[in-house]
Amino acid sequence: MSSKPSPGARIAAALRRFPIYVDPSYASALPAADRRRLAARLKKMPVPTFIVLVPLVQGGTWNDDKQLATVVHSRLGRDGIFVTFHESTDELMGHEWGGDHAADDAAWAVNWDDSLDGASLAARLTRLTDLIASGTATKVYQQESAEIDRKYQAHLKSSAPRPAKDDGGAGLALPLAAGGAGVAVAAVAGVLLWRRRRMAAVRRTAGEGLLLPRTVFATAGKASEDQLREQASREVIAFGELLDGSTAPDGERAGALMTRALDAYQAAAKTLDGAKGVPDLAGVLVLLDQGRDALASARALSEGKGEVPPSPLCFFNPLHGDGPDEVDWRPLGSRRRLHVHACRACARAARARETPDMLMDRRDGRDVPYFEADPARSVWAETGYGQLRDDLIHRILRGDLNKR
Hints:
10 strands, 2 domains, 11% strand, globular, Diaminopimelate Epimerase, Chain A, domain 1, membrane, 13 helices, two-stranded antiparallel sheet, alpha/beta
């Protein structure tokens, strides 16, 4: 007696006959006529492209889009682009095997396109496929991301609290001001996108004014250490002002997140004060990113919304920004295999068994990848900037930065 095929096998079997699979619960969202029109467009795509629309529910058949796409790709046995929902029917996600056609950029360009708010699912899928087919997905994504950054900076500038003339510098920013207020924050050329943020359960919109600004040096090699220090100093001050203007949130979980945000601020300020090079300054930005995510989640919970899911940074160099790709990677000469998040370029290099663009650390008179430093002497190597361990903030506060 043959066993019943798995959900992944059933979807793969359906995709061999028709490139679009829609769960019955979403049938009305993408009617049959729309599916036929989309299928005709998929025939003109540069690589095989499949659309799989099923519910994603924690504890259900499919927990998340990555699991769904990975299983269906494996069962289908064919490389290409797999388009799924992200965490709701309002957001799409692009996954790709065997090529690089910026499917994820295309998906987020659609998710962030204000002109598509309220548009039909068919219209959004059509736009996504057009971006991939035209080769403009990354360009459009970057334009939309830059516009969000512009609005964020304008909002931050207009809403930043102005200290009273005789406040004596009181507030959460005081510890930093005492040690770093004299640092002149210069206009630094060559700044690019700091984060490639995913839009998740809570939209990371410019109006929130809480998440880490996206402008920072593309890599440490494109800016001097002094310039990076100025950028880190400015971001610590800005986060301190945000915290100083925040009220205590309601609820146990929101309170715990607020405490984490405060701890991250203190850890970032402490790291900045003792920073001895680019790896430490990168750590400042990582800690600020964790703190701002916690603050945004605390405020979201207080407003009856969901938490802001954190986006892991690139393991190989956090200054690359978000690490949307997951890779299994084994350092040279090590038997330990790591499952880490990486930016697209580093993930591509790691999968090709090439050397990713790693953040270097100066140890014993020579430059080595930061994660190859002695963990007993480097909190960044020990924690992978928070990817290998989730207690980075605690370790900084207890003084691990000075154990070198």
